[in-house]
């Protein structure tokens, strides 16, 4: 088989030849990356295994909408796409917490300008592909599935539209082919490559909540959350006035629900207010349309192989969705490598090395945070606890705005490096714990002082009597906490 070079400048002298970058995967990160590299003047070729979703009639695949926040927006801004995407996003200024009685409580994300956006995945992908398509130095190749590539020569083998094999060559391969990356397979065969993947026991299922009387069935500008420890549902608004509800639940519990009636019984117990909004019949059917989907967390390092290849987005770091950061982190990857390209004058070998050095600690930090939040939510987060924690965070922030910044604020509304956000969070935790200790000690000492000063006025009380009083107090506290 002959290896075809992707460059149209093959026969020119190598010094004037523009470098060719092959972007494998035309998903969210691949299509954005194509814009970044094209803007720098590289020759870019995108290879996507699926058909062109701009022409596709039905778009299948993962999660219908996503929460876009600051990091993702900054990356879009750099390629001039921020306004276009934001104008088709729905702002979510607060979470809306639903308890089992159907009571709803809003908790703002922050100040007025601090909101996240619900964006349509398919539309975002289409817009980014269309933008990449406007560059004359970019080609988009759909129905091209990467089969394998050679770290020695950099040659890639694709399965083309008619099932035929094609061998192609590029100066740099950028693996943006998602959590089950084919590009990454060659990394796994290298010495000193670290890799771990973890499937969590939960699956997810998407359900559509239709409009009610032509309008949104719930308040549109919120991220709706039904926190129920091991079960959780989240709903994000869509432009067509529907909501996409995502139910998170252990696979073993999904398996226990086998009939439409069992679905309704389950929803009656945990999410009763959502039943009339989704609709009894729709719920009974939608639940069995697709099986629950798995969620995987992938960590690896390094992200580059010689000067031949680099992994970005989910291919480098699939994270569980419990921080709403997977895409945002992947978009920030593009921004970071672009910043390093500036710093190191597009010296590819040096850029890849620096990219791994800078980015691995941050991507690992967000992977850990998302997993931590999954464990935390599952362990003891019901609607009351969720409200309490977010209020506490926000109140401390208002009292000491410079000292205490909630973790989600640093993650969602700033470009503070993820690993620094984690360090700062640990530090703040120490400050808060110290603060509580000091308050405790001061009030105990104060109480003791008052007690001693006034002891002569107090009626004497037997130890036994005191003990019954304490027990009564304990019972009272228990009751009033329920
Ligand atoms: P993908 O989107 O997976 O794209 C990979 C592309 O590569 C695909 O188009 C695929 O067809 C193609 N491909 C695969 N193999 C090959 C091959 N061999 N050859 C050629 N092409 C190939 N993130 C957020 O920021 N906010 C959220 O609110 C959010 N919510 C989420 C909710 C759920 C339930 C899930 C599962 C994820 C969520 N995410 C969220 C994460 C987000 O979906 C991912 O991080 C993001 O899609 C990663 O983009 P990517 O381009 O790296 O990978
Ligand atoms: C999960 C699935 C609320 C979209 C984490 C918050 C998510 C999203 C939260 C999905 C939660 C959880 C945060 C944002 C966001 C919260 C966040 C989670 C969007 C800590 C489409 N999470 N998500 N945290 O604070 O920072 O509101 O599927 F329930 S957006 Cl799990 Cl900010």
Describe the structure.
With 482 residues, this protein is of the alpha/beta class. The chain is built from 15 helices and 20 strands. The protein has a 7-stranded mixed β-sheet with strand order 7-6-15-16-17-14-18. A 6-stranded mixed β-sheet has the order 9-3-2-13-20-19. Strands 1-12-11-10 form a 4-stranded mixed β-sheet, with no helix packed on it. It is globular. The chain starts with a strand and ends with a helix. Mean pLDDT is 92; it is low at 9-15. The structure holds flavin-adenine dinucleotide and ligand EGU. The site of flavin-adenine dinucleotide (FAD) has 34 residues, from α1, β4, β10 and α10. Residues 63, 66-67, 95, 116, 223, 225, 234, 236, 246, 321-324, 373, 377, 408, 411-412 line the site of ligand EGU.
* Number of helical regions: 15
Please summarize the sheet with the most strands: 7 strands, mixed
- The number of strands is 20
The hetero compounds bound to this protein are:
flavin-adenine dinucleotide, ligand EGU
Strand line-up in the sheet with most strands: 7-6-15-16-17-14-18
What is the share of helical residues? 40-55%
Separation of the first and last Cα atoms: 73 Å
Give me the Rg, rounded: 27 Å
């Amino acid at each position: 088989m002959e290896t075809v070079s992707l460059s149209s400048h093959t026969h020119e002298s190598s010094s004037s030849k523009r470098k060719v970058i092959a972007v494998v995967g035309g998903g969210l990160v691949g299509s954005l990356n194509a814009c970044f590299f094209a803007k720098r003047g590289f020759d870019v070729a995108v290879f996507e295994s699926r058909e062109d979703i701009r022409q596709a009639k039905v778009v299948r695949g993962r999660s219908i909408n996503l929460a876009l926040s600051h990091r993702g927006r900054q990356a879009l801004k750099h390629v001039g796409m921020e306004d276009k995407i934001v104008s088709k996003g729905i702002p979510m200024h607060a979470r809306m917490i639903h308890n089992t009685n159907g009571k709803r409580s809003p908790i703002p994300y922050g100040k007025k300008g601090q909101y996240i956006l619900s964006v349509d995945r398919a539309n975002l992908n289409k817009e980014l592909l269309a933008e990449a398509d406007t560059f004359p130095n970019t080609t988009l190749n759909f129905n091209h599935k990467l089969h394998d590539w050679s770290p020695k020569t950099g040659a890639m083998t694709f399965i083309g539209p008619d099932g035929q094999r094609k061998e192609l060559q590029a100066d740099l391969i950028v693996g943006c082919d998602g959590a089950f990356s084919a590009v990454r397979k060659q990394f796994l065969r290298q010495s000193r490559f670290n890799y771990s993947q973890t499937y969590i026991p939960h699956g997810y299922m998407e359900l559509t909540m239709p409009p009610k009387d032509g309008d949104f069935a719930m308040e549109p500008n919120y991220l709706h959350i039904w926190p129920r420890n091991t079960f959780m549902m989240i709903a994000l608004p869509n432009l067509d006035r529907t909501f996409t509800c995502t139910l998170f639940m252990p696979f073993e519990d999904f398996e226990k629900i086998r009939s439409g009636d069992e679905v309704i019984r389950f929803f009656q117990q945990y999410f009763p207010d959502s039943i009339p909004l989704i609709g009894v019949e729709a719920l009974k059917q939608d639940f069995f349309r697709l099986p629950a989907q798995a969620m995987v967390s992938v960590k690896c390092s390094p992200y580059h192989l010689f000067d031949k290849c680099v992994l970005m987005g989910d291919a480098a770091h699939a994270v569980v969705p419990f921080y709403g950061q997977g895409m945002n982190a992947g978009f920030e990857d593009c921004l970071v490598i672009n910043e390093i390209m500036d710093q190191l004058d597009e010296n590819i070998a040096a850029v890849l090395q620096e990219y791994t050095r800078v980015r691995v600690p941050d991507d690992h930090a967000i992977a850990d945070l998302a997993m931590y939040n999954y464990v935390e939510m599952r362990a003891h987060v019901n609607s009351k606890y969720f409200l309490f924690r977010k209020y506490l965070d926000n109140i401390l922030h208002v009292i000491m705005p410079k000292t205490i910044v909630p973790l989600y604020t640093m993650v969602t509304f700033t470009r503070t490096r993820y690993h620094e956000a984690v360090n700062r969070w640990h530090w703040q935790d120490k400050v808060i714990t110290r603060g509580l200790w000091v308050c405790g000690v001061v009030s105990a000492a104060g109480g003791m002082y008052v007690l001693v000063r006034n002891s002569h006025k107090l009626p004497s009380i037997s130890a036994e009597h005191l003990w019954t009083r304490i027990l009564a107090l304990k019972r009272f506290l228990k009751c009033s906490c329920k």
